[in-house]
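Q: I'm a student working through a structural biology exercise. My instructor gave each of us a protein and asked us to get a predicted structure, then write a short paragraph describing it. Mine is Cardiolipin synthase N-terminal domain-containing protein. I'm not confident about reading structure output yet, so if you can add a plain explanation after the tokens, that would really help. Here is the sequence I was given:
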Amino acid sequence: MLKSINLISCNFSIFPHLKPSRKAQSLRQPRNLTLVQSRARSPFLKPDKILLRNSSWQFPKHEKKKVVFHVCKSSLNNPDPDKTEIQDEGRDWTSSVLLFALWSALLYYCFNLAPDQTPTQDLYFLKKLLNLKGDDGFRMNQILVGLWYIMGLWPVVYAMLLLPTGRSKTPAWPFIVFSFFGGVYALLPYFALWNPPSPPVSESELSKWPFNVLESKVTAGVTLVAGLGLILYALVGNAGDWKEFYQYFRESKFIHVTSLDFCLLSAFAPFWVYNDMTARKWFDKGRWLLPVSVVPFLGPSLYLLLRPALSETTAPTDSASSSDPSQ
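A: Happy to help. First, here is the predicted structure for Cardiolipin synthase N-terminal domain-containing protein. I'll explain a few features afterward.
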């Protein structure tokens, strides 16, 4: 018992002076006084609490209104109490404010500052890419076609990175669904609201939709092969396609905003690769994939194919969670 003794020093400078009384003799008889030391498992509670209980403790009647209770907290088991108090106050919103500012600036740029010299041509390109126009003899730019279809694969990559290990109190799936239409402009609010650590995923959840599909190597392989095929299709086009695409980029709002979307998705991907890698405790073996993830689309897709299954690293089993007495 000596090892668990904590010394608590309190200064009762404002405690009122008790006058001698016959009834005050009960103060010198702490027969029922018990000290109970509780250790809380929750990180939001103090590590030690001293609970005082005395059923026969009675103050004199003329002193009840003057009693002041002092709450004493032990810091012997907390080497840095100031740091704990700061963490309990709340999260740091600096990165969230910066991401919201970036999101607002991007929206303002896209709606007000982006080039918009060919609105009619943009509508025509959109109908052609959506197969709403038949073959009219016009040859679409291969780089534009490859960019359009690869933008439909980016949400799949981010779903495989965010839903298992990038979840937060804010649900991620609505932002991922809207990213099929809005790209990074729909994902940035979630990036700003994301607050680690992510909740754990159980074995039963991994065997159900959508985790069973997002964790599948087949999904990762198909995504990588499809993206590689689209990139090769764009690169092997005519020599004049790049010059034509650059001209579109300078004049067309549709192509300009889409190209910016692709660049931003590629820029944010390495961070989420790192987050997923550390959550799976695979950083020591998979750190070489971090510089590879900088390669647009192909790097994150390759990581998704090579990463270990979440059930083999961090996912707790249902039997273990049910046998935990704290739950």
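A: Here are two points you could use in your paragraph. Confidence is low (pLDDT under 50) at residues 1-18, 20-88, 317-327. The first strand starts at residue 34 and ends at 38. It's a good idea to check both against the output above yourself.
Q: Great, thank you!
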